[in-house]
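Long-time lurker, first post. I've been practising inverse folding by hand and with some scripts of my own, and I keep getting stuck on stretches where the structure tokens seem ambiguous. Below is the full token string for one chain I'm working on. Before anyone asks, I'm not after the true native sequence, just a reasonable design that respects the backbone. If someone could post their per-position residues I'd love to compare against what I wrote down in my notebook.
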């Protein structure tokens, strides 16, 4: 009797884990560093025209990571436009963390879900 009860418990645990893995959608691997961003071709990135980050990327040596980002960056006119690109397709938006935190909170409040994530690496501090 104990053996059957143990078998039923183990099978149910196994099935629960299996169904959990199948039902929960997997998140795509995030891009956590500038090097990862430059070395891939699925995600485009944008910065705000005229921002400090725009100037940093534009004025950096072409062979540096910032220079490589600057050569391929796209420009947006506002943080709202950059966030909308992230929400609409495969885009990364590079902006000051305080502004992005506010925009993510706005989006999360509006739709009760978070569809954006931050990279782990912080590269620019003033």
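-- Answer (accepted) --
I ran through it position by position. Result:
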């Amino acid at each position: 009797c104990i053996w059957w009860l143990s078998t039923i418990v183990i099978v149910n645990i196994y099935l629960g884990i299996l169904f959990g893995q199948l039902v929960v959608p997997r998140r795509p691997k995030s891009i956590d560093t500038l090097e990862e961003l430059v070395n891939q071709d699925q995600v485009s990135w944008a910065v705000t025209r005229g921002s400090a980050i725009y100037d940093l990327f534009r004025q950096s040596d072409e062979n540096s990571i910032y220079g490589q980002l600057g050569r391929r960056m796209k420009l947006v006119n506002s943080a709202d436009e950059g966030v909308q690109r992230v929400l609409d397709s495969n885009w990364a938006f590079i902006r000051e963390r305080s502004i992005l935190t506010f925009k993510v909170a706005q989006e999360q409040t509006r739709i009760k879900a978070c569809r954006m994530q931050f990279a782990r690496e912080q590269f620019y501090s003033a």
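A couple of notes from the structure itself: Residues 7 and 13 are 10 Å apart (CA to CA). The chain is about 55% helix and 10% strand. Happy to go over any region you disagree with.
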